[in-house]
Batch of 4 targets.
Target 1
Amino acid sequence: MADVAARPQQLSCGDCAEDHSPHAPLHRYRDEERHLTARLTELPVHARTTLAALTAVRLLPYFLRFHAETGKGDPHVLGRALDDVWRKLEDGTPVTLPTMLAAFDQIQVAADSPGPLAGLAWYSAAAVTNACHVAVHGEVRETLHCLRYGREASLAAPAASGRAAAGSPGVCRRHASLREEVRRQIRDLDDVARAASPSARASPPT
């Protein structure tokens, strides 16, 4: 698993009058996280794995950009790891330890690199690695890690791209990006929960 000590540091948002600490926006979504945790506990392993993989797929472009601009890391390693996760969902082919270790190595590459883009690459590699762990172990905790990395990356992305605040006073792109990621996660959770429900499994194909 990723070393949390190497996790990117969130920066306070100078463009938002409501943001007084690096993690203030995330703290506003604690109720949503508790709700997600409760729902994830009720899901079967394949549904948790799907949710983790969907989040990792959204973050993968950050690593692609990191590699394109710095020449560091190997996004193909992460792509193959995600392919293995989807294959596990499709036909039960196990995700192997070498695949997981190779993905983990990409976390270290990002952690050893400076700059906000490296931080986004860290979230990307960590999400893929956690998705592999979910595919193997099916733990709620690992799925939650993926979702949290998605939210934290959504906060960091506007700063990494240099986008200035926009909209009404007290509202910035970081908060808008976070809200959008939370909406996506809830939508994905609704979809996988619906697909995993007994009524959906019993329905004949159309």
Note: Residues 45-70 form the longest helix (26 residues).
Target 2
Amino acid sequence: MNQSFSPRLLDLLARSWQRPAAIAEVMFDAAGAAVLFRDAEGGLALGAVADGEPASARMRMEGDVGRMTIRPRRRALPTLVEPEPLPAVAAMAVLPRGGFVVGGADGSVHQVTPRGQVVRLRAAAGDPVQALAVHPVDGQLALALPGRGVLRDGGTEATILKAHAHALAFAEDGALAVSAADGVWLCTAKAPRLHPLPSAQGPLALSGRWIAGACEGAGIWLLERDSGRLAHLPGFPTASRSVLLASGPTLVASGAFRLVAWSLDRPPFAGDHGGALTTGTASAVAVTRAAAHPTRDLVAFSRAGGELVLARLGRPEELVLLPGSGCEITELAFAPGGRHLGLGTASGTAALVELPDMIFK
């Protein structure tokens, strides 16, 4: 699988648009029909995932040489849709019944539909929304405001925690994890419970009985919810901006010179390294971002300098989608079906890459 696509071929697979600032977040809606890009200035732009000229329809096999070719697009790309002007958006999340929810620097919260319509859910209140999460079933909102965490149900709010939250995440069973300076708080129907951790901060991931997150500075941690057992993996060369709990279950993280991947059938407790999955190759530069395919044992990740790679978990072979160009990839996300990969760069490029079946063979 050690292959490379030329930058021109990636251009043929991708739709890309230029935004006014670096891309800070990329997110697909629950149906995988729309993608939302947030830039570092708080601006939003929506794109439809459906493509009038998909790469799969522009590919053909040359019979005489047995080589796959792909023709360029014949029509101009549709522009991204910019929702009506909103206060600078600082956080966003997916709504389970469709669309997105975004929190502003003025404390306001709005729903954004896949077509770009905006509905106000919370008026400006002065305090910025620093992070937010959505309950996976009923759509209840959790907001991180300065010095406190709030649950919002309909038009009512209740403070559930007085702490400065770095990140929020709901589990499938509705438990809410809050990453704070003193550790991670787990909020259930009972009183919030603190698990002290070394300098916990975002990002944060929950899946089943596991919670994982990044440490302030460098390194990651893994917590087993029921037992309270903790693994701390320090010493990364750079901060982990991506911490994921993929199917398997597998812990995946950026920040090291090789993608960090760990089978949670054998978690890294008490120094046990038997669950480590050698994924991709080691490099002289660190892995900066990662995204796990929703149904396959596949992960996309970027390296410092802008290289973009696909690899199978536990396999050293790589498929290089984009050689390093010097422009950092700042965000990566798979669509729910896994057919598309959204990405953003430090120069403001927002892109949607179709991954044809041939890539997975």
Note: The chain is about 0% helix and 45% strand.
Target 3
Amino acid sequence: MLEEVRGGGLRKSVGHTPHPRAPSPTTAVRHGRGGKVQAGLARTLANALDAAAGPDWNADTDFDVRLQDVPLTNRRPDVIVYRAETIDLTPTRPEHVLLVVEVVSPGSETTDRIVKVDQYAKAGIPFYWRIEQAATGVPIVYTYVLDPATRAYRDGEMFTGTVRATAPFSITVDLGVM
């Protein structure tokens, strides 16, 4: 597998973990306290999206996307759905990404609610989902759809506990059982 390195070159990477894979310890570290819950939500959703997506798309965790080259901006969404044929392109590019999902945790609220959503929209990623924990502990999933004319997201559907989405794929997954 080839991966891009700083300065624009390519290098052969050490290898690729077979897909699907378990969440890495870095996911829990990024989410601080409660990181196992957030990582579990991300992995459960990634598995459901991967099953619903069919052979042309992969859903994964711990997968980087390069949003822009100058200034260099890479993000690692909690879940990413990308073209299966680009699995060896690291980091992947926005034109290969269909959906990104962020699981909000204490300390990431502003970044996940404002900064990342703006960056993903400007990069042209068609769908953005944000998962928040209600006071009762039940996950709330907010979905957004890109308006290509404005390069801004428009509100989509909201789900509490169980996601029953029709876009970008028909999917039903219960996130309230974590």
Note: Residues 35-53 form the longest helix (19 residues).
Target 4
Amino acid sequence: MLPPATSAHRRSAILIAQSRMIETGATGAWFGAIPMLRRCLIPAVLIAMNPVAAWAGPKEDAEAVFGRFLAAFTAADPATVVDQFWPDALFWGTTMTGLATTRDAVQAYFAPLANRASNERRATAESVTSAVLSDTAVLVSGVWRVEAAGQATPSLLRVSMVVTCRDDAWRIAQFHNSQMPRP
């Protein structure tokens, strides 16, 4: 047997019924305009609240590529790391003795990431400076750190990269990474 309805239950039921009437326009022409107003107003408010996403420029787009690189490195996801590079990118990895000029060479360099657990090593940007070279090219330079579980001292790495836009997609065209010298 169900408990008797309280006044709170009745108020809830009335509010639900009223909101459904407003959404369907069952209470007149003015109330019927509310769903249309909601459909137009909410996206406009969300865009106004997040101006960086709405009006990102080349600098922000290029720095977002570096952010995706770091996130994929942390996730131990070599495919997503390699996807941040153009197929014809020039690539100097930290431990490389020769310049990589093909997608296969970049894939081979990052393949060992697949042997790690996600978040086993955390990659974060320490400092990033970007110079907009044009609407489609940005030089990104900075320092990033890799912290391994149980490692007392994180690895600090210097990075310089050129990020370019082709067909509305931003990716790395040139990448050079090296170990930060110890003081």
Note: The mean pLDDT is 81.
